[in-house]
Amino acid sequence: MIKISKSDYVTGIKCPNALWFKKYRKDIESDKNQAILDAGTAVGELACDRFPGGVRITAKPWEPEAIEQTQKAITQNASYIYEATFCTDTDEYCAVDILQNNNDGTWDIIEVKSNPEPHEYHYLDVSFQRYVLNHCGIKVRNCFVMTLNKEYIRHGDLDLAQLFALHDVAGKMQDMETVQSEINRIRAFLSGPELGIAISKTKCNNKFYKCEYKCHCWKDLPQYSVFDAFKGKLADEIYAKYGADLHNVPVDIYYKQQHSGDIEAFLDNIDVINLNILKQFTNNLQWPLYFLDYETIMSAVPIFDNSHAYQQICFQFSLHVQRTPGGKLEHYEYLHDNPETDPRPGLLKKLCDVIGDTGSVVVYHKTFEKGRNCEMAFDFPEFAKKLSSINERILDLEEPFKNRGLYCPCQNGSVSIKKTLPTFVPELSYETLGIHNGTEASSQFLDFMNRNQTPQETEEMMKNLREYCGQDTLAMVRLLDVIFTYTNK
Ligand code: SF4
């Protein structure tokens, strides 16, 4: 029999291709995100501390000793068993994150997830576990998914009872017959040859399960395809009917997407310039201009007081200032350098010292900077007035690009600064920098905060972070210069 684990089960339902690749094509797996794996492990360990005094199964779930250790813990009437492992006679197996003893012959399954809310895939996971335990003679009374609680704000030591939220998922689970028929279906396709790949925007881009095989399945798509031009389900429908190549999509379908001009620009290979949209933006600018950008870290478990699970914590800002049109640029910055302390008070003090009370604050993608300012105003009320003034003066430089004041087909439908900068200011590049994007900045700084770096690595990272964040604000200055070349004509 082909062995089926709980993750095989969920993957097989999500996408048969993905499970087939997982079993037989290790060669095409992309690298796993180590930071996400580490965060999951840390949350799992804290979750066990939430239910202390249990027995931990030390063998891996696929090793026979794991089942022997579990049976011994059950015989000893352990209050909790962490990673309790079971395998049916037909080779379905699972390790239960926390198995809680109700001391009446029944047990509760607690599945720990580092997400802030339970998701459909978690219900499948627990359904499979209940099926396996039932077939192994364990009476399951309740099933819970335990997630992080975003409402809990840390003050001092972690309060584990508050940090975690238990969700009774009884009403959301699959029944035994459904699980059995899914297992049969999964075994049937795993016994056959490689499946025809059925890509889909909604399936492959699902944010809860970043698929590791996208590089393989999406490799033959044109650089700009129906999946770039259309959103979600609509993209899937158009793909099913006309394929991925936009040349085959009838013109009367273009209007179904917000930026139908993108497709025309692509097909005719022409740039889009809309002076009215560009002027709408420049007319609102008030000098001095402050070009502001934050870098943040986000931790599943709150590290600092006055923060919650998954809160974005600002650790760096870059600020370019231009006091008059075409005037000289000044540059200010803050980069936290102490892994023992919260970066926000030092960052806020410096920011409030250097940013004036009048003039526009230019950012790129305002929901990010505005959101961080609102959170910091709540967590540090002594800075609330200044942060509120900054938010009132924010102008989003992404908007003239989003509204297609300027658009080039080589952007492939994206208006991220990583696309607009090389398009309109090719001499400024992120490729030559030591840090290329916000995710890298964040994961390297988290390594520093977790003291996982040598002094040399820290020195190198600090230099790279200064260059990277500084480039983000300089990029805005240069992009605005490009807009002025059109509006000042
Ligand atoms: S990329 Fe899409 S089709 Fe390919 S394995 Fe992943 S989810 Fe399935």
Overview of the structural elements:
By secondary structure, this protein is of the alpha/beta class. It has helices at 6-14, 16-24, 34-50, 64-75, 120-135, 160-163, 176-190, 201-204, 214-217, 226-229, 232-242, 260-268, 275-283, 343-354, 366-379, 384-392, 398-402, 417-424, 438-449, 455-487, and strands spanning 55-56, 80-87, 93-101, 106-112, 139-148, 164-168, 272-273, 289-298, 312-322, 329-335, 361-363, 394-396, 406-407. The protein folds into 3 domains: 6-190, Alpha-Beta Complex (Lambda Exonuclease, Chain A); 201-269, no CATH class; 277-487, 2-Layer Sandwich (Nucleotidyltransferase, domain 5), CATH 3.30.420. The radius of gyration is 26 Å and the shape is globular. The structure holds iron/sulfur cluster.
